[in-house]
Amino acid sequence: MSETGATPRVYARIAGTGSYLPANVVTNDDLSKVVDTSDEWIASRTGIRQRHVAAEGETTGDLAYHASVRALEAAGVEASELDLIVLGTTTPDLVFPSTACLLQHRLGANGCGAFDVNAACSGFVYALSVADKFIRTGAARTVLVVGAETLTRMVDWSDRATCVLFGDGAGAVVLKADTETGILSTHLHADGGKKELLWNPVGVSVGFKEQEKNAGVRIHMTGNEVFKHAVKALDSVVEETLAENGLDRRAIDWLIPHQANLRIIEATAKRLDLPMDRVVVTVDRHGNTSSGSVPLALDEAVRSGRVERGQLLLLEAFGGGFTWGSALLRY
Ligand code: ACO
To answer: Residue 207 sits in which domain range?
Structure first.
């Protein structure tokens, strides 16, 4: 209770961040030896210079584990203190159990709730939104939120239109209940009607064998259409976030966007009237790591000292589904 007798509002506040990239780096020049492409084409169209590729046997759960250990250390939180683990991924280790359950066991966070969220590249923002609601309602006080992917496992390395875009990586945050302002609002959207513009149409219920024969276990994408939809959806969710919080765009200290394509990031920054030196860009170093990309960028900005306590951060993402979303928070 506060001095006035009213119960103070509880926010989900980021107590620590962590990230992890596999050791193996594949540059644009490396790819130009495999498919008909060039560093110049990839860098000018996407901003990507290199990506990290998980070693044989290295899984999404492994990447998630390393990122989570770093986030827990940064937060000064023991795994045994966690009430919940929410993990965004579209490349789980297994069909079941969830990667969150595998992670829970490995961290020693026994007994707490643990589940995956599949929202493709928006997976971390979706997971963050779910965790925020658990904390706001008092159902949890300490939550580990992870975005982790090994997207290169379903890349067709002979398709130059997609193989140059993706990489593997993971990021994590520890959220704690706090009376100081943390996450202010989250906004989630989806449009399943556009699924065929970006998808991997293989799965359990439709039958692996038939689909594998027809399409192969790989990402299919109509890149220029995805590009247009991404820019439009992100514009709209950014406007929605500002309006909901009664904020002028100049209030944002940092834009921490999904790292898919530098041109998409620049379009959102322009909409916000933000100079690029207030936008966190890491896509050049790890390509599109799907759910991993927003927490990877956040962790880098925090550890480099660019993002400081008290600043206002706008996180956003767009991905297959389509799904898109945002989170506005005071760090
Ligand atoms: N190297 C060289 N040439 C290439 C390559 C390559 N790697 N890939 C495609 N091309 C060629 C095409 O074959 C085409 O050639 P043509 O004119 O002879 O037919 C030409 O380049 C232009 O192709 P477009 O697809 O029109 O190129 P575009 O400028 O749209 O760039 C890109 C393609 C980079 C994929 C872009 O559309 C994009 O980034 N879209 C967003 C996709 C995305 O980020 N998806 C990830 C998931 S969703 C998300 O995270 C936002």
So the answer is: 184-330
